[in-house]
Amino acid sequence: MSPLKCCINPSILSADFVNLEAELARIANADAVHVDVMDNHFVPNLTIGLPVVERLQKVSPVPLDAHLMIADADRWAPLYADAGLDSVTFHVEAANAPIKLARELRARGAKAGMALRPGTPVEPYLDLLTELDMLLIMTVEPGFGGQSFLDVMLPKIRRARAAVEGSGANVAIQVDGGITEETITRAAEAGANVFVAGSAVYGKPSPEEAIESLRANGQLAFTGTTLISNNA
Ligand code: DX5
Ligand code: ZN
């Protein structure tokens, strides 16, 4: 089993959209930057699309982790992989052929991520784990930053972690929504190891210090409650 470490991926949804290059420079110690793409169809909000993400990819000091909250993922997600992103996550609720899509993302050089809305159970998708590099369990209803962490998602994270261990696949478990210095501990104890944080990073005077502090809390809780060896 390859070792897992805890990653902090700040969400630029909470950044200043007029100064994105400068905002990226403020999180240079992050593991990746989480880029929330919303189309006002899959979620009731609109952010940025492919042309802006392509520019971010060119200037970012850290890898890009795209979270596509868009309809017709089968059509659009591969184009984000073509842009050279490290990781592309589509919502299973928006994909007609998730296995085909995950394979296509990998074939185009990106890590394949699959996201589940809070109301979407993980069990029907456990056989897909070997096709994925990351499973994103939403801990708020997607669409907006600054919402409260849904503790009712903790059992789903635990079941997903157990299934990943059972499968032997090297799948990261990402959580997104309401992650703070406090909630990260519960999410990590349940088995998440990649943490998206928008307001808890960009809402702080020093985003770099916030990242270090979140990572330390997450790593401590994750290491203490899983059987996986850590290299961080
Ligand atoms: C919500 C987005 C999140 C959001 C998280 O739909 O997917 O990435 O930016 O923001 P916080 O950390 O403030 O909950
Ligand atoms: Zn997100």
Automatic annotation (TrEMBL):
Pathway assigned to this chain's UniProt record: Carbohydrate degradation
Q: Which GO terms describe its cellular component?
A: cytoplasm
UniProtKB keywords = Carbohydrate metabolism, Cobalt, Isomerase, Manganese, Metal-binding, Zinc
Q: Which positions does UniProt annotate for substrate binding? A: 11, 67, 143-146, 176-178, 198-199
Pfam families for this protein: Ribul_P_3_epim
Kindly state which reaction or reactions the protein catalyses. D-ribulose 5-phosphate = D-xylulose 5-phosphate
Q: From the Swiss-Prot or TrEMBL record, give the protein name.
A: Ribulose-phosphate 3-epimerase
Q: Which organism is it from?
A: Arthrobacter livingstonensis
